[in-house]
Amino acid sequence: MTGEVRIGIIGYGAQGSVYARMLAAGEITGASLGAVADHDAGRRAAAEEAHTGVALFEDYPSVLSSGAVDAVITTIPHYLHPEVAIAALDAGLHVLVEKPAGVYTAQVRELNEFAATKPEQTFAIMFNQRTNPLYRRIKEIVDAGEIGKIRRSNWIITTWWRPQGYYDQSAWRATWGGEGGGVLVNQAPHQLDLWQWICGVPQSVFAKAAFGFRRDIAVEDEVTAVVDYGDGATGVFITATHDLIGTDRFEILGDKGKIVVDGSATATVTRLSEDERAISESVSGDNVRKMFKGQLRLDEKQQTETITFDSAWGSQHAEVIRNFAAHILDGEPLLAPGSDGMNGVRLANAIHLSAWLGREVPLDFDESEYLAELNARIRDEGKFPERS
C-alpha cells in the first residue's frame, strides 16, 4: 500500500471523536479519516457537522463492506472489541482495537487465534503508554540487566478518583453485563500492561477486591493483588477509584539495583556496583558494627540517575495510530501488537477470580470457571444477556 491509510472510526464517543479529529486535522502522518460509524443518530449528526464529506454509517458491517476504509479503530464497549475486530479482519481490513482487547480471555483468545490466520493484515492495540519515553527507557534498563534479576515489583496506582455521578451517567457503566468490571477493565488496563511488559507475566495471583466498597456500583472499586513470578520473585498491584488524593508509584527491585517511578513522570534508577548478595557476604561482623554507626559507606557501591521526559497529552495516542499506519505502509515494527492484549485481560480475570473464590489462582486458570462466575453476576444484575 502507498500513500495514506484510510481509517474508519467505529464508535463516535468520547475517545472515537478525539481520534477522528486527529485524523481529519492531518495530525497523524500516513493516516486519514475515511469513515465514521455509530448506531446513535445524535452522534452521527455530530460527526457529520465536525467532518463534512466523511462517509457515515449506522453500523460496523456497513463500514467493513463500504470500500471507504483500509483499516478501522474500535472505540466501542469492551465486550464488542473481539467481535468487530474479527469481522474487520475477515473483511480484509487492518485493525487497531482500543483497550482492553475484551472482557474475558475466551473471547480474546478467539480474536488472537483468528488474527493469526490473517498475517497479511495488521492487528494492534491502543496501549498508548508504551510510547511514553520514560517507560520505554525503563524497559530498556530492565531488559539489559542493568538492575539484575527482578526480585520484587509493586505499583500503587490510585489516581483514578471517580465521583458517583461518573457511574450514574450511563446504565452500562460499572456493571458486569455492560462493562465487565470496574477499575481493572476501565481505568487500570494501561498499568496492567506496562507492569507485565516491563516485569514479565506472573505465574499466579492472590487478590482481595472490594465490590461497591465506596461507590454504589456492583463491580470492583478497590483492588490489592499479590502475584508470584516463581523463583521467589513477587509483585503487588494496588488500585482504586475512591482515593481523592491519589498515588502513582512504581518500584522494581533487582539483584543489582532499583527503579522508583513517581507520578509516571520521574524515575530514579539506582545501580549497585555488584550483586546485593555479594555485598552482603562481604560485610563481616566488625563491619556490621560500623554499618550501625553509619561508618560503612555503602553509598559508595551505589550510583543514582534521575530520568525525566516531556510527554504532551494526546501525543501518545497519536503515536500508536501513526505507528499502526507506518506498519501497514512500510513494515515499521508495532509498538503494541494486538495479541499482547491478552496479557492484561488474563491478569484482570485472574484477579477477579481470586477475589471471588478467596484463593490463589494460576494465570492459566480454567476459563470456563471464570465465565461461569461472571455470568452468575450478570444474572444477579438482571439487565444484560449472559456471555458464552
TrEMBL record:
Entry-linked InterPro entries: Gfo/Idh/MocA-like_OxRdtase_N, Gfo/Idh/MocA_Oxidoreductase, GFO_IDH_MocA-like_dom, NAD(P)-bd_dom_sf
Pfam families on file: GFO_IDH_MocA, GFO_IDH_MocA_C3
Ranges where the GFO/IDH/MocA-like oxidoreductase domain occurs: 135-259
Keyword ATP-binding appears in the UniProt entry: no
Annotated Gfo/Idh/MocA-like oxidoreductase N-terminal domain residues: 5-120
Top-level taxon of the source organism: Bacteria
GO MF annotations, alphabetized: nucleotide binding
UniProt keywords, alphabetically: NAD
Keyword Signal (UniProt): no
Name by which UniProt lists this protein: Gfo/Idh/MocA family oxidoreductase
Source species: Ruania alkalisoli
